[in-house]
Design goal:
There is one protein chain. By secondary structure, the protein is α/β, with parallel strands linked by helices. It is 39% helix and 20% strand. The protein has 17 helices and 20 strands. The protein has a 7-stranded mixed sheet with strand order 5-4-3-2-1-14-15, covered by helices on one side. α6 crosses α7, α6 crosses α12 and α7 runs parallel beside α8. It is elongated. It comes from Vreelandella boliviensis LC1.
Length: 544
C-alpha cells in the first residue's frame, strides 16, 4: 500500500500569453514539489492558451507557440512529477481541446475532449473537433482517468474511463461562475462520483476574462460523493490532496482543507471584484474613473472598484446639474471620503446651456422631453471620457441589469465606458450587495441605500414614476430573460398585465442599446452578451 500526493493548480492564466502561462506552470510545479511533495500536478482546461481563446485559435502561429511552450516545460519541469495541463492542439489537421501528460521530460500522452459544449457562453464546436478515445494513465500504481470539463457532465466519457480501469477520475475545467453555480457544481460531482463509485478530482481555473469570471472551487470528492478537499473560492493557489491506496484498485482521498461556505452576497460580490480587477489589470489601465451621483448604483460600483484596485487607482467625479439634490452631493462626498478616493466636482450647467443655446433654433416650437434629460447625461459622458483620455483611466459604467434590460440608460451618456462591473446585477441585488458590503466595513452611506432611486434628470423624478417597483420589475425580468417565459405565462403567474406587456416591450425594443453597451461581469445564467443573442431588427410580438 502506498500514498500519492496530487496538487490542484488553481491559477489565473492570461488568454494569449502562452509563454507567460507556461512560465506560470513551471513555477507552480516547482512550488508544488517543494511545498507539498507533489507526485502529480493538475492544471485547468486550456491553461497554456487561457480560456476562452476564441478566434486566436484560428491563427496559424498558435500551434507554433504552443509547441515552443511545451518544449520549454519538458526541459524545465522536474522529472519525477507528473504534470497534467490543458492546451489546444492541431493534430492531423484538426484542432482539439487537449490535456497533455508530461513526465520525466517527455509528453507521454494526450487526451482530446469529447463533449464540446455549445450553449450559453460556450462555442466550442466552432473551434474544436471532438475526441473519441479514452485515456487511462497509470502513475505510481494509480490508474488515472483523464477528462475535460463537459466530459464529466456528459456521462459517456466517464463510463468509458471507468470501464477502461480508471481508479480515480481527474477532470480539467474552465467553468465560468454564475449565481448558484458553486452549489450546483458540488451537487453534480456528488452524483457522478456515486454513479461510478470513483473519487473525482475537479480542477478549475480562476480569474476574469472579458465578461466571464471563474471562481475556482477546485475540489475532490470520494467515491461516495463526499467532499474531501475544497480550494478557496476566488483565490489562486495550490491545493494538495493526499490519496491512500486501501486495496489493489482503490485510492481513497483523505480529508483535507475545505473552504467554508459563503453567503450568496459575498460570492456575487467577489465575482464582481474579480472580474473588474482582472479586466483593468490585464488590459493595462492605470485605474478607473466613474461618475458618482449619490445614487445606489454608482455607490456600489465605487465600492467594488476600490476593493478591486485600491483607492489610489480610483477617481470619482460628481457632475451636478439643477436637479441634483443636495443630499446626493452630500452622500457622494461622504462616500468618496469614506473610501479615500480622489474626488472632484464638475458642474455641467455651463455645458448643457451651451448645447441648448446651439440647438435652440433647431428645437424651436418643440416641447421639452427626454431629449433635454439625455443631454445632461451626454455632457457627463464627455467629461468622463476626457478624463479617461488624459489620465489613462478606464471609465467604469454603473448601470444595473434591470436598467439595461428596459433601456433606462442613455447612449453616449451614462452608457459611456469601457466596462461595467454591475451590468449583470439586477437592481434588487444591487441593494442586497450594498447592505452586505456595509457589514464588512463602512463603504456606502446608509441614506444612499434607503432613499428612493432617481436618475435626477427632471424635477422630483423617481424611477417608480415610469417603472413598476423594482421587486416587481425584477421578478418579471427574471421570468422573461432567465426563464424565457412568454408575457401570457408571466401574467398567469399573477403579475399585472399592463406591467408585463410594458416591460416585455421595453426589453425587446432596447436590444440595439445593449449591443452598444460596455461589457461587464457575467453573473447570471443568461447575461446580456454571449448568453442572449437576439436580433436587433425583428417582427416578434410579445405573447408569441
Amino acid at each position: 500500500m502506498q500514498d500519492l500526493t496530487l496538487v490542484m493548480a488553481q491559477l489565473d492564466p492570461l488568454v494569449g500569453d502562452i509563454p507567460g502561462n507556461a512560465a506560470r506552470a513551471i513555477e507552480a510545479v516547482r512550488e508544488a514539489r517543494i511545498e507539498h511533495g507533489a507526485d502529480i500536478v493538475v492544471f485547468p482546461e486550456l491553461f497554456l492558451s487561457g480560456y476562452p481563446p476564441e478566434d486566436l485559435l484560428l491563427r496559424p502561429s498558435m500551434e507554433t507557440r504552443l509547441r515552443e511552450a511545451r518544449a520549454l516545460m519538458a526541459s524545465k519541469v522536474a522529472s519525477d512529477v507528473l504534470v497534467i495541463v490543458g492546451y489546444p492542439g492541431v493534430r492531423e489537421g484538426r484542432c482539439y481541446n487537449l490535456a497533455g501528460l508530461l513526465y520525466n521530460g517527455q509528453w507521454e500522452a494526450e487526451y482530446a475532449k469529447q463533449a464540446l459544449p455549445n450553449y450559453q457562453v460556450f462555442d466550442e464546436q466552432r473551434y474544436f473537433a471532438p475526441g473519441n478515445e479514452t485515456l487511462v494513465y497509470e502513475h505510481k500504481g494509480a490508474k488515472l482517468g483523464i477528462l475535460i470539463c463537459e466530459d464529466l457532465w456528459d456521462g459517456a466519457p466517464v463510463r468509458a474511463a471507468t470501464e477502461a480501469g480508471a481508479e480515480m477520475l481527474i477532470t480539467l475545467n474552465a467553468s465560468p461562475y454564475h449565481q448558484d453555480k458553486p452549489i450546483e457544481r458540488l451537487r453534480l460531482l456528488e452524483e457522478h462520483a456515486q454513479d461510478v463509485n470513483r473519487p473525482i478530482v475537479y480542477v478549475n481555473t480562476i480569474g476574469g476574462q472579458d465578461e466571464l469570471v471563474f471562481d475556482g472551487g477546485s475540489c475532490c470528492v470520494n467515491a461516495s460523493g463526499q467532499l474531501q478537499v475544497l480550494a478557496p473560492y476566488w483565490q489562486a493557489g495550490l491545493m494538495p490532496i493526499q490519496f491512500l491506496q486501501t486495496s489493489a484498485t482503490v485510492w481513497e482521498p483523505q480529508p483535507g482543507e475545505i473552504d467554508p461556505e459563503v453567503e450568496p452576497e459575498e460570492s456575487l460580490y467577489c465575482a464582481l471584484v474579480t472580474g473588474l480587477r482582472d479586466y483593468v489589470n490585464k488590459s493595462g489601465f492605470e485605474g478607473v474613473v466613474l461618475g458618482l451621483s449619490g445614487g445606489i448604483d454608482s455607490a456600489l460600483s465605487l465600492a467594488i472598484a476600490v476593493d478591486a484596485l485600491g483607492p489610489q487607482r480610483v477617481q470619482a467625479v460628481m457632475m451636478p446639474y439643477h436637479y441634483t439634490a443636495d443630499i446626493s452631493k452630500q452622500d457622494a462626498a461622504e462616500q468618496a471620503k469614506m473610501l479615500g478616493v480622489h474626488y472632484e466636482i464638475m458642474p455641467i450647467e455651463p455645458m448643457v446651456e451651451a448645447f441648448m443655446g446651439t440647438l435652440a433654433e433647431s428645437f424651436a416650437g418643440t416641447e421639452r422631453d427626454t431629449t433635454e434629460e439625455n443631454l445632461q447625461s451626454r455632457c457627463r459622458g464627455v467629461l468622463l471620457m476626457a478624463i479617461s483620455n488624459k489620465k489613462g483611466l478606464m471609465v467604469l459604467t454603473t448601470g444595473n441589469k434591470s436598467e439595461m434590460a428596459v433601456g433606462y440608460a442613455t447612449l453616449y451618456g451614462d452608457m459611456v465606458g469601457g466596462f461595467n462591473a454591475i451590468k449583470d446585477v439586477y437592481k434588487t441585488w444591487v441593494y442586497r450587495l450594498a447592505r452586505w458590503r456595509n457589514t464588512q466595513s463602512p463603504a456606502i452611506p446608509a441614506r444612499v441605500i434607503e432613499r428612493p432611486p432617481s436618475a435626477e434628470l427632471a424635477p422630483d423624478q423617481q424611477d417608480s414614476d415610469s417603472l413598476p417597483d423594482y421587486d416587481t420589475l425584477d421578478a418579471i425580468l427574471l421570468s422573461y430573460i432567465e426563464g424565457d417565459m412568454s408575457a401570457e405565462a408571466i401574467i398567469a403567474g399573477g403579475f399585472d398585465a399592463e406591467d408585463v406587456y410594458k416591460v416585455v416591450k421595453l426589453v425587446d425594443r432596447c436590444e440595439y442599446k445593449r449591443r452598444q453597451a460596455p461589457i461587464g461581469v457575467r453573473v447570471t445564467p443568461r447575461g446580456f452578451g454571449r448568453d442572449r443573442r437576439y436580433p436587433i431588427v425583428n417582427g416578434w410580438q410579445p405573447g408569441e
